[in-house]
Amino acid sequence: MQRAYISKLMELAENDKNVLHLIADSGTGFDEMFKRNFPAQMLNFGIAEEHMVAAAAGMATGGKIPFIFTAGAFLAYRAFEFIRDDVCFQNLNVKIVGMGSGLAWSTLGPTHHTTEDISVLRSLPNLKILSPATPLEVMSCVQLAYQIHGPVYIRIGMNNEKEYFDENHLVDIGKAVTVKEGNNITIFSTGSILEEVWEAVQKLETDGISAAIVNAVSIKPFDEEKVIECAEKSKMIVTVEEHNIYGGLGSIISEIMAEAGVGKKVVRIGLKDRFAVGYGTQKLVRTENGLDSTTVYKCIKEKYNE
């Protein structure tokens, strides 16, 4: 996803000199490639995420379009006040890109995990939130963020995520994407956890349970019509997220259904009010925290048969 992000950003930067790439000492080989091609459009603020956000707000007032790029945990939590007061309160044209959504920083533990960012940031007025599941969706989200005038937060993975869409796939603000049709249940997921959901659904199919998969790429605004449509035709709704279930995708779906008066069971799969445990590959950490395809499959099957 990092390669997809930089590729699209370089394309935008080549056509618009106002596009800037801001990092906080989190540079990769991809960032070096951007710097070689556009040295005047890249700034490294060091380990000073708050100052980077404040500076980006100032740049936006001068007509620049800054894309802030660093570890998501250090943006959503450490720089929260600056995102709130300097960017969102002023409704400035700043793009905030959190690298390493969910458990992607798997070897570095909970201090680096981005498992509460949706809960924290969706409460901010004026801020739009995008959570792509694949590299092609990242590119589409970056293009969409560029076209939107105002604050946008994009949370991306960083571990060679699988692709489930074709090159014509486009993200639309406020719209979810049906990845697979199904008759019995609907599973909403967001971010790169789609890979585990896809594998879990294949297992469910062998048990005669037909499951639709809906990719919630637009977190804010959310596709309320899609939720109500799926809830009305499904036996139950399942949400799967590499995130705390409180305030995250599961909470969003539950809020929409409650307000619409749709009385269907909602099963929320994610981190249940705790920090993730374990270290290693992202796959391993997912398994240790019950977010692997096998555990997701077993949970859904059990709830479906209750």
SSE arrangement:
Elements: H1 2-15, E1 19-23, H2 29-37, E2 42-44, H3 49-61, E3 65-71, H4 72-78, H5 80-88, E4 95-99, H6 117-121, E5 128-130, H7 135-147, E6 152-156, E7 177-180, E8 185-189, H8 194-206, E9 211-215, E10 218-220, H9 224-233, E11 236-244, H10 249-260, E12 265-271, H11 282-288, H12 293-304
Parallel strand pairs: 1-2, 1-3, 3-4, 4-6, 5-6, 8-9, 8-11, 11-12
Antiparallel strand pairs: 5-10, 7-9
Helix pairs in contact: 1-2, 1-7, 3-5, 8-12, 9-10
What does this structure look like?
By secondary structure, the chain is of the alpha/beta class. 41% of the residues lie in helices and 20% in strands. Strands 2-1-3-4-6-5-10 form a 7-stranded mixed β-sheet, sandwiched between helices. Strands 7-9-8-11-12 form a 5-stranded mixed β-sheet, with helices on both faces. It starts with a helix and ends with a helix.
In summary, what is this structure?
It contains twelve helices and twelve strands. With 306 residues, it is of the alpha/beta class.
Q: What attributes does this structure have?
A:
306 residues; alpha/beta; seven-stranded mixed sheet; five-stranded mixed sheet; 12 helices
